[in-house]
Every structure is written in structure tokens, then in C-alpha cells.
Design a protein that fits this description.
FAD/NAD(P)-binding domain; globular; 18 helices; about 30% helix; 20 strands; alpha/beta; eight-stranded mixed β-sheet
Length: about 550
């Protein structure tokens, strides 16, 4: 902004969160000449990849497609060791990015936002920051506030009586400590078989004395099919960077995967079985993006794929009763986010692993000695809560954000989030949240990066006009949110039983938290905004 404006604020762009999105927003803001700072509650960079360091945590998008693409030099100098990198390598990569682009001096760690109040007269956010280690606060006046807090940043604990009474070690996968948790020879429980639970179970089974898995809902798990990246593949990735970047910057879900172009029942039964086998052995999300094109549209097609997966589970798991409990009976493939696994089903063939069906025998209470269900007490040394997150809005609604006329963001979104482009909301000027509600349904960094680029372009346009206040119009927000809500009821949207609708958190409004229209809708609306001279935003001095 102008020199006069800078005297009224401490920083032009204050970014909350040092994950993939926050780091990229910091880089872009600095690149465009804004003063910028990141504040982060953790004591290191990574966001999701800082907090989720449990055994087995790793990408389920290909490493080189998840990574930053804004620098050819960065891409060339970092050699991912696996197609789906594990958490330690991901954390090393993000620290490398921070240091390579000299971002660390613009970052404050162990710092949490306790309130952010819009100052109409000063056209800025008054943000109170608390040091999480000492009893100290500071107040920062920021022209623009960017909540890059992510959608998987607030761990969710189910309301289980006595949870705090357990005498052993209790840890959530989303807040795994930096010091390793000693599991060797321990009696361990894992509660939850979502994306985190299915990763950690096979990675700890060999070292524990016993492992009790508490499952509420089975998931349609298929193999990740991870492997090392060969030198030949590494060279090919670098040689093909320009073409790869073009595909990742424009593809619907932000992947390299090619659609199959095949319709299920155009193939014979034998051809379908061969194709399903090919899909089973394919990497990660190809089972969604490269499967039959009508998989999520034709219930009969989906049912046959589910039957194929169920047969695989029965062929792997020795105990027929356990196998049946691991096969979903309440949703179809793609209705919830499907986890991708390594050695997961095989773990249940280990005699020290037991599976508890929480629908049949719910947890009654946690006691100092362990977990009590209707079948009795299981004595434990360690309880691992793999129970997910308050998805989408959880972190933003815990920042104490107060917009125009004293309206809190929590009240504004009491019935669920309303946004424009998933980056801003009317009544909260100069507040942006790329990667938040109404963001990606695909490879997150690609979509979130699109949003960061748009926010940065918007800030540059405001500076060009001498505007200090930027706010989406009510009409723009209403149109975008109506599109989100309409698309949420149509395939291939995730189902209303998924956490993408907030279904895992009791009392949370059941509103879709993603953009089911995907990148095509985002790109179309961004083009419209720019073609209409940014009329979807009020930009004022």
C-alpha cells in the first residue's frame, strides 16, 4: 500500500499457519513487495505435516505432484525418495523450502491467535497473539489477515466418559509428539479406522504386545502401492517438468492421472475383472480418477467395484468374521474419502490384533486401567485416538474472529460456512482463508495454490487502486455458496455421512465443506471476476 498506510499497521499481510498453503502465501506476498509475517502455533514448519508425525504418516498424493511447482530450480534440486513420501521426508522438504527462499526470518513460532477484531476506522485487523510457552501476548495491526489454517488442523475427540482419567499414555494422531512414543511391548488401543488409523495400525503391530482396534465404521481401503522412485524416473520427472506442471495446473483434481474413458458395462465381465485388478494394483487416487468414468454416477457400477474390494478383503483376512467387519455396509466407494493403505488388512491376521465393533459394543467409559465396553474391560498402556478432525472450519472458528458491527465469524457461520470462491466472506473485510472451507476436492496444494495466487492478485489490484478495504459482495457470496450447496447434492460429491459435511462432529451444521464443482468452477469464476473488473469485491480507500 502507500507509505502513509504502512505507518498505521505493523504488517500488511499477517498469515496464520506455516503449512503448505501458508508458506506459499508468504512467498507470494513477499515476492509482490508486501510486508508479511507468518505466525504458527507449533515450533516448526509443516502444518499438517508437523503435527501428524505418527508412525506411517505419509502422502497419498504422489510426492512430486503435491510439492511446490513455483520454482523449476526447487523441483530439480529436491529428489523425493518415494512416490508417496513419509512424514519425516515431507518435513525436511518444507524446511528446505523455507530456508532456500529465506522465509524463516518472517515467521514466529509457538504463537497462537487468541483474537482478531476488525477495526473499521483503521481499516485493519487488530490481532492478539499469545506465546504458547510463556504467559505473554502481543498485539499486531495487520492490513490483511490470511487464515491459512488448513482443514485438518483441529483434532477431534469423541465424547467418551473418563477420557482424562486414563493412567497410561493417551495421544491423538493429529498431535503426535516430536519425541517418539514408546510402544514396544505395550498393550495399545487404536480408536478409529479412518485415514490416520489405517496408516498407523500396520506400522506399530510388530512392536506392541497387543493391539486392540476400535472401529465405528469400516472404510473402503485399497492399496497405496508405494515404491521408491528410481533414478530413471527421477530424470524423467525433471525432463518433463514443464508438461507435468501444465497438467497439474489445469487438471480437474490436480493429479497426473489420466481418465480411463471407459464405461463399466461397455466391458464384458471378464474385462471388468481384469480392469479392477489393474486398478487394485495402481497407485493411490488412480482408483478414483482413472477408474471407470461412471463409478461415482452409476450405483450398479459402484456396487460391482465394491464387491471386488470385498472379495479382496476376504481373500487377505484369514478370520471370516473379522473380514466381514472390515467391509463397509453403510456407504459405497467414494461416499467417504477412501483411505489408501499398506499391509493394513494383513495386520488383522496377527494373533495379537483384535477388532472391536463399536456399533455392536460401544465404549462405555475410559477408566485408569483402560477401556470398558459392554463386553468388559481391556487393560491398556497406550490409547491412540485416530478420531479425525473438526474439518474445514475448526481452526478458523477458534481464532476469535470478529468482523463488521461486532459479528463473530462463529455467529456468521452458525448454519455452516458461506464464502466467495472459498477465500473470503462478506462482513469480514480483508480476511482471506485459502485452503479453508469450500476449497479443494482433490490434490490440496494444487487447488489451494490457485486460491493463494488469486488472493495475491487481488491484493495487488487493491494496491494499484489505492484501496485499503477489500470485501466480497453479498451477491457474490450468495451465488458461490448456492453453487456449493447445489453441487453437494449431486454426484460425484462425497456423501452426507462423511466428515466433508461435518458429520463426524456432533452438533456441527451439516453443510458441504468442499467445492464439489472443483477447479473448473473455481477457474470459471476467477476469470469472471477479472473480466468484470473485480466487481465481485468492494474495494475502497
Amino acid at each position: 500500500m502507500g507509505a502513509g498506510d504502512e505507518t498505521q499497521v505493523d504488517v500488511e499481510v499477517l498469515i496464520v499457519g506455516a503449512g503448505m498453503t501458508g508458506l506459499y502465501q508468504l512467498h507470494r506476498a513477499l515476492e509482490e513487495g508486501f510486508t508479511a509475517e507468518v505466525v504458527e502455533a507449533g515450533d516448526g514448519v509443516g502444518g499438517t505435516w508437523f503435527w501428524n508425525r505418527y508412525p506411517g504418516a505419509r502422502f497419498d498424493s504422489e510426492s512430486y505432484t503435491y510439492a511446490y511447482l513455483f520454482s523449476r530450480e526447487l523441483f530439480d534440486e529436491w529428489a523425493w525418495t518415494e512416490h508417496f513420501a513419509g512424514q519425516p521426508e515431507i518435513e525436511r522438504y518444507l524446511n528446505h523450502v523455507v530456508d532456500r527462499f529465506d522465509l524463516r526470518r518472517h515467521m514466529a513460532f509457538r504463537t497462537r491467535v487468541t483474537s482478531a477484531v476488525w477495526d473499521d476506522a483503521g481499516a485493519c485487523w487488530v490481532v492478539t497473539l499469545a506465546d504458547v510457552q510463556v504467559d505473554a501476548e502481543r498485539v499486531v495491526r495487520a492490513r490483511f489477515l490470511v487464515g491459512a489454517t488448513g482443514v485438518l488442523s483441529v483434532p477431534f475427540y469423541p465424547d467418551v466418559p473418563g477420557r482424562e482419567d486414563f493412567a497410561g499414555v493417551s495421544v491423538h494422531t493429529g498431535r503426535w509428539p516430536q519425541e517418539p512414543v514408546d510402544l514396544a511391548g505395550k498393550r495399545v488401543a487404536v480408536i478409529g479406522t479412518g485415514s490416520s488409523g489405517v496408516q498407523i495400525i500396520p506400522n506399530i503391530v510388530d512392536e506392541v504386545a497387543s493391539l486392540t482396534v476400535y472401529q465405528r465404521t469400516a472404510n473402503w481401503c485399497t492399496p497405496l502401492n508405494n515404491r521408491p522412485i528410481t533414478d530413471v524416473e527421477q530424470a524423467a520427472l525433471r525432463a518433463d517438468f514443464v508438461r507435468m506442471k501444465e497438467i497439474l495446473d489445469t487438471s480437474v483434481a490436480g493429479f497426473l492421472h489420466e481418465p480411463s474413458g471407459r464405461v463399466t458395462f461397455d466391458d464384458t465381465a471378464e474385462e471388468r475383472q481384469a480392469f479392477y485388478e489393474q486398478m487394485w494394483n495402481s497407485p493411490g487416487f488412480t482408483k478414483l480418477s482413472s477408474n471407470y468414468v461412471d463409478l461415482l454416477l452409476d450405483p450398479k457400477a459402484n456396487a460391482e467395484w465394491c464387491d471386488f474390494i470385498a472379495a479382496k478383503v476376504r481373500s487377505i483376512v484369514v478370520d471370516p468374521e473379522v473380514a466381514e467387519r472390515l467391509i463397509p455396509d453403510d456407504h459405497v466407494f467414494g461416499e467417504k474419502r477412501p483411505p489408501f493403505v499398506e499391509r493394513y488388512y494383513e495386520a488383522f491376521n496377527d494373533p495379537k490384533v483384535s477388532l472391536v465393533d463399536l456399533k455392536a459394543t460401544p465404549i462405555l467409559r475410559v477408566v485408569p486401567e483402560g477401556i470398558e465396553t459392554a463386553d468388559g474391560l481391556v487393560e491398556l498402556d497406550v490409547i491412540i485416538w485416530a478420531t479425525g478432525f473438526d474439518f474445514g472450519t475448526g481452526a478458523l472458528l477458534r481464532m476469535g474472529i470478529v468482523g463488521r458491527d461486532g459479528v463473530t465469524l462463529a455467529d456468521h457461520w452458525a448454519d455452516g460456512p458461506t464464502t466467495f470462491l472459498g477465500v473470503g466472506t462478506h462482513g469480514f473485510p480483508n480476511l482471506f482463508f485459502p485452503g479453508g472451507p469450500h476449497a479443494a476436492a482433490g490434490n490440496n496444494p494444487r487447488y489451494n495454490g490457485d486460491q493463494v495466487d488469486f488472493v495475491t492478485d487481488l491484493l495487488c489490484e487493491a494496491r494499484r487502486r489505492g484501496a485499503t478495504v477489500v470485501e466480497p459482495t453479498q451477491d457474490a457470496e450468495d451465488r458461490w455458496t448456492a453453487m456449493i450447496d447445489k453441487a453437494a447434492d449431486q454426484p460425484p460429491s462425497f456423501g452426507k455421512s462423511s466428515y466433508f459435511f461435518g458429520a463426524n462432529v456432533p452438533g456441527k451444521p451439516r453443510r458441504y465443506l468442499l467445492n464439489a464443482g472443483g477447479r473448473p468452477k473455481l477457474f470459471k469464476e476467477i476469470d469472471r471476476v477479472k473480466a468484470t473488473d473485480w466487481a465481485a469485491f468492494d474495494l475502497s480507500p
